[in-house]
Amino acid sequence: MIRTLVTVAALTAGLSSLAAAHAGLQTIEAPAGSQYRAVISIPHGCAGAATNEVRVRVPDGMIAINPMPKAGWELETVMEPLDEPYMDHGREVTERIGEVRWTGGDLADAHYDEFTFMARLPNEPGQHLHFPVVQACGDDALRWIDVPASGEGAADTDYPAPVLYLTEPESSGHSHGHDHGHSHDH
Predict the structure, then answer these.
(1) How many angstroms separate the CA atoms of 116 and 41, rounded?
(2) How far apart are alpha carbons 70 and 113 in whole angstroms?
(3) The domain at 21-167 falls in which architecture?
(4) Contact 36/120 with Cβ under 8 angstroms?
(5) Domain ranges of the chain
(6) How far apart are CA 186 and CA 51, in angstroms?
(7) How is the beta sheet containing 63-67 ordered, strand by strand?
(8) What was the pLDDT predicted at 37?
């Protein structure tokens, strides 16, 4: 019986280190110009410590960001000016959410959770959008912010930022008559 428990524990430890060892995106491809549900997965804490803050840098070019609140966490956003304002429902939008922060939570090292926001993607097929994530655990932090140099992949970095690949837009023939969809930055 003891040997069985040791074997199961060793297998479980090995599997958890292989599966989802990094912060990541649930969906890694999306049509350029579409509405995108960014789901950032946090698979573990920091060397045994619980995660109590998750900060996500919203990639440049994404607009109309709507973060999803999480029970037990405070939601904060950091605004930044847009290089090119746009019109949305008859009003000029001159800034966007550049960073989303969930703070004050308690995600145990052995647990998994997801942090979500909606946004409009830039209409630039073929682009890779990087989502730098900082996962704070008390005084410690994991900084999933590495962007590979040209010609390298995420495997060439120690702490890769989650990445989204923009595919060709879907041709549905349906138009809302808006420049950038229904969402608003708050």
Answers:
(1) 9
(2) 10
(3) Sandwich (2.60)
(4) yes
(5) 21-167
(6) 26
(7) 24-25, 35-42, 113-120, 63-67
(8) 98
pLDDT of residue 150: 74
What pLDDT sits at residue 152? 67
- For residue 143 the two structure tokens come to 């900084």
User: What pLDDT was estimated at residue 141?
Assistant: 95
pTM of the predicted model as reported, rounded to 2 decimal places = 0.79
What is residue 5's three-state secondary structure?
Answer: helix
DSSP 27: -
> Token pair of 52, please?
């109590």
Q: DSSP states of 57-115 as a string? A: EPPTT-EEEEEPP-TTSEEEEEEEEEEEEEEETTEEEEEEEEEEEEEEEEE-TT--EEE
- Residue 57: predicted pLDDT: 98
Paired tokens of 43: 């698979």
Q: Which stretches in the chain have pLDDT values below 70?
A: 1-20, 151-155, 172-186
